[in-house]
């Protein structure tokens, strides 16, 4: 390829107007060893040399993609026998026993409290009957109290007699 | 999408995807990881495949996104490394002149390309190294055809200016 033609292609290249074929022609031209390259083209040569060198990337060995996909899948559900969960069942039974025992304790305690309360409960439903019984009880109390007062009266007689004797 | 369709349509472009990832990451292991992750992602989103017009471009977009994520993560790691490196004695550091002398022409061009903004660099790599058409690049990067042309023109212009600097000043 003539140098002028190369310069023309280069101008199109710098302007971003070159086609892929023209750019390939430039790559081939600049990657061919030449001793007679003019200075202006020599300046550009490293760029196309770089492009050619960079195109040779060593191809790596890829791992098996199917294996990779299989590994990325979520793991299947592992089926286990029902008796494998014996600890869960044991825990449920223990909790049931505990709750039952607690309920039973509560029940008996509740009954005890109710019994205690029943002692303090009213003995008469009819207020008049209750009043009459209260009066009766107070009358009994009063009678007994009067008995005591009469005995104390006797004692006061004795005191008075003693005082008179002392005075004489 | 059945496994057979996946194996016949997606897996054959794996090499292309790897090359694309390698261009972005410049590391074989990272490129391999990204390629595998992208393939798995495609497989996991297989229900989308029937709606796609350009399956290869879609795969490329996934690779690009994954690679950019990896680059971002690597950037943080590099920043940490640089912080640690500042503690090293100055005697281990070579002068910029010595470093420049050691680099050959290819490395200088590599640096010029590598210094381009990510979009410019990707477009120039896809076009000038991989030989993709404008439409293929537009589909892969999910941008307009005109944007591809404009960015490619700007990228080449920048490379040309840098090459001229290299010739004139040797830097």
Automatic annotation (TrEMBL), chain A:
Source organism (scientific name): Chitinophaga rhizophila
Superkingdom as given in the UniProt entry: Bacteria
Protein name as annotated: Uncharacterized protein
UniProtKB/TrEMBL annotation, chain B:
Organism this protein belongs to: Chitinophaga rhizophila
Cited InterPro entries: RNA_pol_sigma-70-like, RNA_pol_sigma-70_dom, RNA_pol_sigma70_r2, RNA_pol_sigma70_r4_t2, RNA_pol_sigma_r2, RNA_pol_sigma_r3/r4-like, WH-like_DNA-bd_sf
Domain RNA polymerase sigma-70 region: 14-75
Domain named RNA polymerase sigma factor 70 region 4 type: residues: 107-158
Family under the similarity heading: Belongs to the sigma-70 factor family. ECF subfamily.
DNA-binding among keywords: yes
SUPFAM superfamilies: Sigma2 domain of RNA polymerase sigma factors (SSF88946), Sigma3 and sigma4 domains of RNA polymerase sigma factors (SSF88659)
Keywords, alphabetical: DNA-binding, Sigma factor, Transcription, Transcription regulation
Lineage top rank: taxon: Bacteria
Protein name, UniProt field: RNA polymerase sigma factor
